[in-house]
Amino acid sequence: MGIFQLTSPVLMLAFSLTCGGTQTAISRYTAACLGIKNEKDAKKFLFTGCILSFSLALLYSIIVYGQAENISTYFLQEKRCASLLKICAFSFPFSALHCCFNGYFYGKKETKIPSFTQIAEQLIRVGTVLCLYYFFLHQGKHPTIALTCIGMLLGEVCSFFISFLYFLSTDTLKKTPFRSGFSGNLPSSFPNTPASSDSIFSVCKQLLALSIPLTFSRVIVNLLQSYEAILLPTRLRLFGYSNETALSIYGVLTGMAFSLVFFPSTFANSVSVLLLPTVSEASSAKNYKQIKNTIGKSIFFSLFLGFICTLAFYLPGNFWGVFLFDSQLAGTFIRQLSFLCPFLYLHITLTSILNGLKRTKTTLFINTFSLLLRLCFIIYLVPVYGIKGYLWGLLLSEFFSSALCSFSLRKYLFL
């Protein structure tokens, strides 16, 4: 599990480089276009975003597949990750296209399709792993963690095709030929309001103007997260653990405890993807009262969900660890991580609101500060206190992140 989790920096960087900023840009422009009843241009942003994201994802896949051994040896510092990266590389183009379609549906506030595809993706992923696991056992072979990567690949492929087939079923392709040109009627609050054009380049220019700063922000944050993921097992070895024990503790923490404690954050993430186009549309219309109400409700929802989850994870934490993962250590981590929930969920929702208000520099600063704080704890406290030093840093970083997000939105709260 620890070896598989070490691949996460490469996977996170794939999302940031290929579709992270593009998905957000598509969502915002779709919301703006539909706000003025211009569905035709919203679809053009989707098509252009798909072309850009797919091209970047294909290039990234070729690089990761071809350099898997070097990436594993020199970047991840674990040679056994190479075979996993080669499997994961095939999923990047499908993941990028899926994200673009999700951005379009979120901008239209049609959450049922992204929700259905996410559920289908997880079911296919888990089902594939289980089927292959029992197949290998039946053949007398030893299953490996590579099965997880195969399940992830099939899940991404199927989720993309579900989104694409739904899009085709609405006859959107027939209604939106590119040759009809770009109407150029986006709200003036959006950057570089486009002029009419008969080419794809005017659409591409507008999309890049918004997606590049977001992508740059995500890449910086994910590079720091990558360094954090690679550094933690190394510092655990300085505490006195062997390489196998350090990877085992890292795998239990990130692959077991994190997966349970962060599971309710899917609700916060679902709310956040809808908050961005909602706040963006309200900001374009200068509807500050709606923005204030949205922020207030988001804070209440995040704190309420967070406190409920804290109780649900802290009190029976040891039970969850043994019952779900057959690991007492996982139960200990679950109880300690339970205090993260209120701050984590608040950070997620308020960051989306800041992005909707085009405060991307603010979110970059907050996220960077949070990660640098965690890195300091890893570098200086983990070799002395072990994994507890990392957990302390994680709690403090999320607390300060949520506090800084709230402080950045204070003028809207006290209108």
Features:
single chain, 415 residues, mainly alpha, 2 domains, 20 helices
Account of the protein in words:
- This protein has 415 residues and is an all-alpha fold.
- It has 2 domains: 1-211, no CATH class; 240-415, no CATH class.
- The chain is built from 20 helices and no strands.
- The chain has helices at residues 2-5, 8-35, 39-66, 68-75, 82-89, 92-107, 112-138, 146-169, 172-175, 201-239, 243-261, 265-284, 288-314, 317-325, 328-337, 341-356, 360-380, 382-385, 387-408, 410-413.
- The N and C termini lie far apart (49 Å).
Reading the helices and strands in chain order gives HHHHHHHHHHHHHHHHHHHH
Number of strands: 0
Distance between the termini: 49 Å
- Count of discrete alpha- or pi-helical segments spanning 4 or more residues: 20
Binned, the helix content reads over 70%
Summarize the biggest pleated sheet: none
Q: What is Rg?
A: 22 Å
Apparent shape: globular
Number of domains: 2
Mean pLDDT: 83
Low-confidence stretches: 176-182, 187-198
Beta strand %: under 5%
Helix/strand/pairing category: mainly alpha
Tell me the layout of helices and strands.
Layout: H1 2-5, H2 8-35, H3 39-66, H4 68-75, H5 82-89, H6 92-107, H7 112-138, H8 146-169, H9 172-175, H10 201-239, H11 243-261, H12 265-284, H13 288-314, H14 317-325, H15 328-337, H16 341-356, H17 360-380, H18 382-385, H19 387-408, H20 410-413
Q: Would you summarize the structure shown here?
A:
Helix content is 81%, strand content 0%. The chain is built from 20 helices and no strands.
